[in-house]
């Protein structure tokens, strides 16, 4: 199998993972803003997310000859390594729950703030666990100041969301266009879905009469999107974000245990799971949970979404190619993160949790987040981004080298 053995290669994989993991949320957000049901989108995403893991396992995991202490992917499938497999699958379960939660949080809190808060929680908890699981191969004097930067970013992210929500309320209160709960109840989601994906890739199609950042823009966008959020409780969206962050903070330590067996659960003589085998089982459990829950949500929708069916999902081809692309980006991003973590330490690999830098770029460029906001919101946004730049640089600088 292919093994990354130098710090430079590990950092290159982390940077690629950073771009992929920061881009796929923007793709799913684009579809939600066009009116496509999140259940339909997540089912498509789950399929290609698993296919990416299978591709990585059958290519990188099969390169070269199999060795007794480092078997190839197919060789390892027949070995007695179930304790490690269960750790890998547990990581896939919590990642799937976290991804599912963020899909709804993006609508309530915004792409940028959701990714920043959830990723920061992931680093504060997950990186600390990985540091001790990895036998402290990362330099603590560099690593933990980076963790501190992420912790500050959590606070700044919450402040940005609160300030931006206040800005939007002020815009809506002074708008000549009335927006009521009746308007929300009467919005035709299926009609919006038909209109939302037939014209152009611009996510603001259908709101061309209003400028981004205005009250009219917010109202027209609300009538078009699949999840209705205006007038919702401020802390409801933040609660979803914190739940997702807690889930994300556990998947990397679980994967670490699966590949390095720090708790000595394997029988004597059984080799550790290679990163590709662990990622394969990790992705299978992620797939099963994602598919199962979203089929349930088709018939038992949440947050006021319309009821759908599996037959309706199969017929919904509007934007499907983008959902499939998002699954590939996430799958390869996770795979590259784990490959880099196996070489340089999973605590350093958590630097990819600076993915909100990429998500914030897409949020501002594609969706007009924070346009026409107050100076206070802009100042908090800049401070938050600065903290993330510092955090990712520091975490990568703490990279160590795992003893084979």
TrEMBL record:
Residues 173-188 have a biased composition (Polar residues). Keywords: ATP-binding, Membrane, Nucleotide-binding, Transmembrane, Transmembrane helix, Transport. One of its GO terms (molecular function) is allantoin:proton symporter activity. It is a multi-pass membrane protein. It is found in: Membrane. It comes from the Eukaryota. GO terms for cellular component: membrane. Its main location: membrane. The keyword Transmembrane helix applies. The chain crosses the membrane at residues 12-31, 43-64, 84-101, 108-130, 142-161, 234-255, 275-299, 322-340, 346-366, 378-398. Residues 168-200 are annotated as: Disordered. Belongs to the plant ureide permease (TC 2.A.7.19) family. This is Ureide permease 2-like. The gene is LOC109718022.
């Amino acid at each position: 199998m292919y093994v990354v053995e130098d710090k430079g290669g590990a950092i290159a994989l982390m940077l690629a993972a950073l771009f992929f993991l920061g881009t796929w949320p923007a793709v799913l957000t684009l579809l939600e803003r066009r009116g496509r049901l999140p259940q339909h989108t997540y089912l498509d995403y789950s399929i290609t997310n698993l296919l990416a893991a299978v591709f990585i396992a059958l290519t990188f995991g099969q390169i070269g000859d199999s060795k007794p202490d480092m078997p190839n992917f197919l060789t390892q499938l027949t070995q007695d390594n179930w304790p490690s497999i269960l750790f890998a699958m547990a990581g896939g379960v919590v990642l799937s729950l976290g991804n599912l939660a963020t899909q709804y949080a993006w609508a309530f809190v915004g792409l940028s703030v959701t990714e920043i808060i959830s990723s920061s929680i992931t680093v504060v908890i997950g990186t600390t666990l990985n540091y001790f699981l990895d036998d402290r191969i990362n330099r603590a004097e560099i690593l933990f100041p980076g963790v501190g930067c992420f912790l500050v970013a959590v606070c700044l992210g919450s402040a940005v969301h609160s300030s931006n929500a206040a800005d939007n309320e002020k815009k809506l209160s002074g708008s000549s266009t009335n927006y009521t709960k009746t308007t929300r109840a009467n919005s035709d989601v299926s009609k919006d879905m038909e209109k939302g994906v037939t014209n152009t890739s611009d996510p603001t199609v259908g709101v061309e009469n209003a400028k981004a950042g205005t009250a009219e823009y917010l109202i027209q966008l609300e009538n078009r999107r699949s999840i209705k959020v205006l007038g919702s409780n401020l802390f409801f969206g933040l609660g979803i974000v914190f739940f997702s962050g807690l889930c994300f903070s556990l998947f990397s330590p679980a994967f670490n245990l699966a590949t390095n067996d720090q708790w000595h659960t394997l029988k004597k003589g059984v080799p550790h799971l290679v990163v590709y085998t662990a990622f394969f089982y990790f992705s299978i459990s992620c797939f099963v949970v994602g598919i199962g829950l979203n089929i349930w949500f088709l018939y038992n929708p949440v947050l006021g979404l319309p009821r759908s069916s599996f037959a309706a999902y199969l017929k919904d081809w509007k934007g499907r190619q983008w959902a499939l692309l998002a699954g590939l980006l996430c799958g390869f991003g996770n795979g590259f993160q784990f490959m880099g973590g196996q070489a340089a330490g999973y605590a350093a690999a958590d630097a990819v949790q600076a993915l909100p830098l990429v998500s914030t770029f897409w949020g501002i460029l594609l969706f007009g987040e924070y346009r026409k906001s107050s100076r206070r919101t802009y100042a908090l946004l800049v401070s938050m981004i600065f903290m993330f730049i510092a955090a990712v640089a520091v975490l990568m600088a703490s990279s160590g080298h795992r003893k084979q």
